[in-house]
């Protein structure tokens, strides 16, 4: 009898634990996680893939900590993301550890997202998320830029590739691109996007808030399109793709730091 009671108590405990394990994790939506504070650049920024300017020291550093399709340790390579602004441009900096520099796409407005690739999605108002601007650039500077309309028709997203603003990009690589046999160190990408390409509501005022997402694709084999993905703000389900606007974060323009 006592054995039965102990057994049923153990069953109950297991049942309780499994119920707890099934409790869904809280899914944060836009504005719930800490906003990214965009420091104002205090000097001209040269887009060369290097953080030589002292101004970059004032930029908030965030890591892309949310990984998808990441089964092996190599699928979880570290990325640091920084952003600044001035009257003319929004400046982005991606700093990526990478043991296998890989990029096959060479065409414009094609599929750099299958490669080692930095991605940035942005919209100049935080509460109107039907569309956003997108920039996806691989480590050989093959770029795909577009306006994206979320679930535009029958829940299908609509990409307007004809959006081709002028912006500056430079990449540095530490290693050899497209050689599976050696071990690389990493890459950086610096981007300057004119404010005019992002907003016709005028230049951002101090305190203005926009919505954005920063993404990295990490491909590690020349002949295999598999790549892992990491994001600054969590998107939870990669099958719904990285463009889910309600998973974006907020960026806030600061005067200085
Ligand atoms: Ca385009
Ligand atoms: Ca890689």
TrEMBL record:
Give the Carbohydrate-binding domain ranges. Answer: 47-229
So which residues are the signal peptide here? Answer: 1-21
Q: Which UniProt keywords apply?
A: Signal
Pfam families per the UniProt record, alphabetical: CBM9_1
Q: Which domain of life is it from?
A: Bacteria
Query: Example GO biological process term?
Result: carbohydrate catabolic process
Molecular function as annotated in GO: carbohydrate binding; hydrolase activity, hydrolyzing O-glycosyl compounds
Its name, as the record gives it, is Carbohydrate binding protein with CBM9 domain
